[in-house]
Each structure stands twice: as structure tokens, then as C-alpha cells.
Design a protein that fits this description.
Blueprint lengths: L4 E6 L3 H13 L2 E6 L5 H10 L2 H4 L5 E4 L10 E4 L15 H18 L4 E4 L4 H12 L6 E3 L1 H17 L6 E2 L2 E2 L7 E2 L5 E2 L2 E2 H4 L2 H12 L1 H9 L6 H15 L4 E10 L5 E12 L2 E5 L6 H21 L3
Parallel strand pairs: 1-2, 1-4, 2-3, 4-5, 5-6
Antiparallel strand pairs: 7-10, 8-9, 10-11, 12-13, 13-14
Length: about 300
């Protein structure tokens, strides 16, 4: 591996492999793709590597069935876990994925004690809390992708509804990555105009509900898997912000320590991301009803965390 940035991606399924491809094409970091299935990460890494001459990137990729090759990673992305199937909620995944994320965290932290972890395994908010608990890292160094993905889903729906560019849509999504997520329509804007002034209230509510069920809609259509193109793009955006020290404000899952009146649980909130992970949590000015909805969403995650009995 070269002296460039190093990104390790644990889980070589659809999300992990797509993420490896997106980051490889950016050409600023070398990549280790890890999976327990023999040959899978090696084969996908080799396939992506061979697209380098065609897409003009010099990224070096390596596949591995263990963690030795991940040593000294700058960022570790965790996508390993059981994916949702039709009829399965994110909550159903909790105990199944708890042991997977626990093992990954141990393997990663031992070899990359200075890394920043991005968790993409569902249920994301609880898995971020678990990885924080087991790693002993500062909260700024363990975050989840959720809000970036949820905001992208909402922005895509709004852009289609209004026939405008997605680049002009700024979506505001807070809370749990699941049924209790909090979408704030008055802070979701198109070139500065709130969608509450551009669309009828029933249309706004339809787009909100479609966003809340965004992951389930994809699962229902695919039938044998879950979303991976949009999630991998969301992860890549977060990796960009961190490694390139962009100081971008992106909604991501982080443990709150008093912000929004919430402590010791993980939900998605806007955060400024740079080379050291979360530079600061951005606290939006919310109405009493919006703050109450965020508090209820945090309670949902807190219940999940309780099921894990972390002590």
C-alpha cells in the first residue's frame, strides 16, 4: 500500500463493494476490503483494481479475510451484517448484528487505534452506540451514515415533484434511521424556499412518509436484498468530508451529550465533518413540537440500546 490515505471497508457485500468502487474512483485513498467469505473481497478488489486503467485512477485495492491488512487505517467503514428482507424491520436485526459489529470493532480498534469509524450496519443508531462503547473512542470518531442517506432520499423525491435540480434541494432530517425519524419540512428548502410554501400540505406529507419508508420501499422491490447504491454514495460523501478536511455540515448519527436536550443516546443531527471526525454538532433552532418529536425518536433508540444490555 502507498503512503496515501487508507480506507478499510469491512463487509464486501453490495454496500461495501459499491463503496469501495466509489472511493477508488476518487483516487485519494488506497482501500482494504474485508469479508469472512473466502475469495469474495479478493475477487471484488481485483475486479475494481482492473477498472483503474479505464477510469484513470491509481488507487490500490486489497481483499482480505482478516484484519491484519487494515492496520493504520485512517477511516474504517463497517457495512458487515445481516441485511433486511421483506417484512423485517431494522429492529429485528439488532441482536443478529450486535455480535457482528462487536467483533468488527475489536478487530479494527486493535490495529487502527487512531481511525475514524463510519457505521453503516443496521440498526445504525444502536450500532454506533455499540461501537463507541466497545472501542472506547471519543464520540467524534464513531458516526453513522443515516442522515445523509435519508436526506438524499427526501431531496430526490422533492426534486422530482417540483421538476428542479437535486442540487437546489436542501433536506432536513433528524432522529432515528427508521420509523421515528423526524423530517422538518419548514427547514427543507429549494433554493432557500421552504417546501411548505412550494407544495400542498398533503403532498409534503406524502413525500415525508415515502422518505420514512424509503429503505423498506427498496427492500420490497428488490425482494432479495436492500439498498446499496444510495447508501454507498452517502458513505463516500462522509469519507470525502473527513479525509479531505472539508468541514462539511452533514446529518449523521452521533452520540449526543446535551445537544437538543438529549444525552447518552445516538440519533442523526447535523454535524461539521473534518479530518478529526466530528468537529462540532450543529444545533438547529426547532419549535417545541419539533424538539418533542426528536426527543421521542431518541427514546426509540434508547430502548434499542437497552436491549443490548451493555451495562
Amino acid at each position: 500500500m502507498s503512503s496515501r490515505f487508507k480506507v478499510s471497508i469491512v463487509g464486501a457485500g453490495n454496500v461495501g463493494a459499491s463503496c469501495a468502487m466509489r472511493i477508488a474512483e476518487r483516487d485519494y485513498a488506497d482501500i482494504v476490503l474485508v469479508d469472512i467469505v473466502e475469495g469474495l473481497p479478493q475477487g471484488k478488489a481485483l475486479d475494481i483494481q482492473q477498472s483503474g486503467p479505464l477510469l484513470e485512477f491509481d488507487t490500490r485495492l486489497m481483499g482480505s479475510n482478516g484484519y491484519e491488512e487494515t492496520a493504520d487505517s485512517d477511516v474504517v467503514v463497517v457495512t458487515a451484517g445481516i441485511t433486511r428482507r421483506p417484512g423485517m424491520s431494522r429492529d429485528d436485526l439488532l441482536l443478529m448484528n450486535m455480535e457482528i459489529v462487536r467483533g468488527v470493532t475489536r478487530g479494527v480498534v486493535e490495529r487502527s487505534p487512531e481511525c475514524i469509524m463510519i457505521i453503516a450496519t443496521n440498526p445504525i443508531d444502536a450500532m454506533v452506540y455499540l461501537a463507541l462503547h466497545d472501542s472506547g473512542f471519543a464520540r467524534e470518531k464513531v458516526l453513522g451514515l443515516s442522515g445523509v442517506l435519508d436526506a438524499a432520499r427526501l431531496a430526490s423525491f422533492v426534486a422530482a415533484e417540483l421538476n428542479v435540480s437535486v442540487e437546489d434541494v436542501d433536506a432536513c432530517v433528524l432522529g432515528e434511521h427508521g420509523g421515528s425519524m423526524v423530517i422538518v419540512p419548514r427547514l427543507t428548502t429549494v433554493h432557500g424556499d421552504p417546501i411548505t410554501e412550494l407544495l400542498p400540505s398533503e403532498t409534503v406529507e406524502r413525500l415525508v412518509q415515502r422518505t420514512v419508508a424509503g429503505g423498506a420501499e427498496v427492500v420490497g422491490l428488490l425482494k432479495t436484498g436492500s439498498a446499496f447504491y444510495a447508501p454507498s454514495a452517502a458513505i463516500a460523501m462522509m469519507v470525502d468530508a473527513i479525509l479531505l478536511d472539508k468541514m462539511r455540515i452533514l446529518p449523521c448519527a452521533i452520540r449526543l451529550d446535551g445537544e437538543y436536550g438529549i444525552t447518552d443516546t445516538v440519533i442523526s443531527v447535523p454535524a461539521k465533518l473534518g479530518r478529526n471526525g466530528v468537529d462540532r454538532v450543529v444545533e438547529l433552532t426547532l419549535t417545541a413540537n419539533e424538539r418533542a418529536a426528536v426527543a421521542r425518536s431518541a427514546d426509540v433508540v434508547r430502548e434499542l440500546i437497552g436491549v443490548m444490555k451493555l451495562g
